[in-house]
Fold each of these.
Amino acid sequence: MSTNQQLTEAIERYVNGEMSGDELARFEQYRKENAEIDPKISEQKRFNSVLKQYGERKELEDKLNAIHSEIDVHTLVEEMTVHPAWIIQLWRNHHSKISVAASVAIFAVLTTMFFTGYFSKNNHGYEDLSARIAKVQADQSKLRQTVSAAIKGSKPGRPHLTNPGNYKGTGFALSSDGYIVTNNHVLGARFDSLYVQDADGNQYRAKLVYAEPQYDIAILKITDSDFEGLGTLPYNFKRTKPDLGEDVYTLGYPEGDSPVMDRGYVSSQNGNKGDSLQYRVSIPVNPGNSGSPLINSKGNVIGIVTGKQTDTEGASYAIKAGYLYKAIQNVPLDSLGGKLTLNNKNTLVGMNRVQQINKMQNYVFMVKVY
Amino acid sequence: MPTDSEVILGILNNSETVLKRLYLAYFPMVLQLIINNNGNQDDAKDIYQEAIIVLYNKVKGGEFELSSKLKTFIYSVCRRLWLKRLSQMNRYGGDIRDFQEHLPVEEDVELHSDRDIQFGKMEGALQLLGEPCKTIIEDFYINNRSMQEICEKFGYTNADNAKTQKYKCLQRLKKLFFQQK
């Protein structure tokens, strides 16, 4: 047992139980004499067992792999998978296509919305109140005018216009010499001539003096030779902010040839989608009311009725009177016959509403656009 | 499906027929567990085979008591092994979808993982050992071939030369094995 090799072989044989008789006895003797041999023996034992286990496991794995290869795993997987709802599967299998389709759809919708003016100020649900005269209403109007003319007897020799016009709105006097304000949108994009009609049914030819589309304000002047002036205006214009909940009323021509009064209250300092040009007013108004004065209980004009929200009940909008001042300042002087100054004396204060309306209605006109 | 005691006896007798019947009997159950818990069919194969090895070692070591159903034992081991692997891969969401009842098998799995480490070391050492040493060692220690057979297979002139070669190979293998971390 001189060399390591011989020793290792001896240990191996000893561990494997291959020694017998004399050899075993000699090895046992040697083991007793050399204590350092015991660790080598246990190491050999351990190593052998690991090697053995390695071999067994290798063999077992080979067998298992052979068995496994006979299983149709794919079919089993199909059976075992807990199938998610068909919609989830559809998404998993086609999500890229679905995403592309969705993007295209969203783009198409946005494009359509853009080109149909959804994003512009006068958007969906907002309605200007100039009336495009319907056939029925036109017939009614003709009838009413004929009757009213027959009863009252209009001025002789004066041709009476029975055509109700393409657009109709309301306007009210800014001064006694025939300046009238209305909404710019009442005039439409193109027009041939303008007429205003008072509560008594008298019609006067008018011209456009100045338009401020930005504020939706148009200033007209009665140019008719029959026009004799209006007399001093009973109301003035109030630029300061109204209080929320303040009672207001309006006088306009939404229906027929008679002025219609509607009342309500200021519901917000800002208008459609927070538009600071307008007040929001809770008041029932209708097509034809565009350009009507919005008057508070003291007889001050605080705004010009201009539109309403068709989606929301009771949401109407009026341009703030302050913008009327701004529009007047912007009027070029040479287009005015004389200086246009707004009346600042209010004679309606202290009157009740019926009295106020009686006075007011002589200064509120139907605006007809041809 | 083989009965549990059939399987135990079959393992003790190294019966390949029983092994096959066992394997085929419970694979679908394990496949179902794995593929419905973030795994695929290859994961299922690995896990299932490990569990069979665990069972084998347990039975061979005489430790397996038929206190629980074999099916439950295999399922529990697979479940434990898969949870471990999921957390190693950071894919464990804290929730596992179960299909069978299961028991705690931590000890068995721990024992297995120790053996697994030894196995891995040995496999690595043998790879590093290279030929012809690897085959000589495998033939002698695992396949129980005699030195005479090995001598003829590798064309050594006499058995002593083969012995010397085997000795050198074994020394190197031991060195490689104990060096591995």
Amino acid sequence: MAKFKKKTKADTNIPTSALPDIIFMLLFFFMVTTVLREQEILVEQKIPQATQLQKLQKKTLISYLYVGKPKNPSLYGSEPRIQANDVLINTSDILLWVNQEKDNLSEVERDQITISLKADREVKMGPISDIQFELREADARKLMYASVGKVENN
Amino acid sequence: MGKRSRMVQEVNAGSMADIAFLLLIFFLVTTTIASDKGILNILPPKQDPNQPPPEVELNERNIFNILVNANDQLLIEGDFRENTDGLSDEIKRFIMNFGNPDEDAVALYNSLPATLKAIAGQSPESSDHPMTGGAVVSIKTNRGTSYETYLEVLDLVKKAYFEIYAERVGLSTDEYRTLSGQSAAERELIDRGKESIPMAISIAEPDKIGS
């Protein structure tokens, strides 16, 4: 029994030399995933909830349209407006904008362009259907209603 | 001199973690993990102004009518509703009704798993078969309908279809929906789910009255 010596003193020091490495690893993860917002959103964005979400694979094919009430009503009024890139546009400008976005894609991908419609939940269907009509005219028929996941209660 | 060189030269690395923490917190705060998620919808091709839209003759029983008015109230198959409870199941039963199946539809019915066969009500007042031209879900809104309600309805219609597709291939609805189609096996699963049951969702132009 003498073989099993009782440990008299436990080594209580936790080695912390690897801590910076762990933190750095986390840091790099967030540095890589971060997308610094390069454009300011000028309209209100309360994205509606839905359950049947699908994810798009190719992000380069997506162009974003933001729809909502302007955050600065004294400048832009209180009616819902459309924002493309960093300016507010009218419904009639969508055709031009889609064509510009299509020009940024390679020729084979042009007809696969997907418009992600980030509309505020308070927007009415009137402006939305006007946008859809313009998108049909512009032959950008893949449309995604951007929405966030909803927790189902059943 | 000799004494100094023998001393262990070690940079104090204790504050390194603090610096890394600071950077970490900065990126944590500024990160918005891009969420490109949403409900996909394929718009119909543009209309030729010289040609009237093609008239599609469909029997009334083959159309599942969902009307949403400017007050976000629903009229589903003629019944007034305040909310969308149970709508997805009704749509599912409508699509899979098989009221008047032709030869192909009978073959389709026989290929279905038992859980889907069970919901086939075969009611003569509901859809003929789930194949092209057999069952259409129509959503009509008003210009004053809120986008949120419209999306909620569209979401439920999509849910009904995805549930059918998922049951056909024996996956859960979430699993089926997240199939990316990047590998051949996944594409095969997606196609097998959809085969002969197209997502026939008709979204009518909103009307202007009462907005």
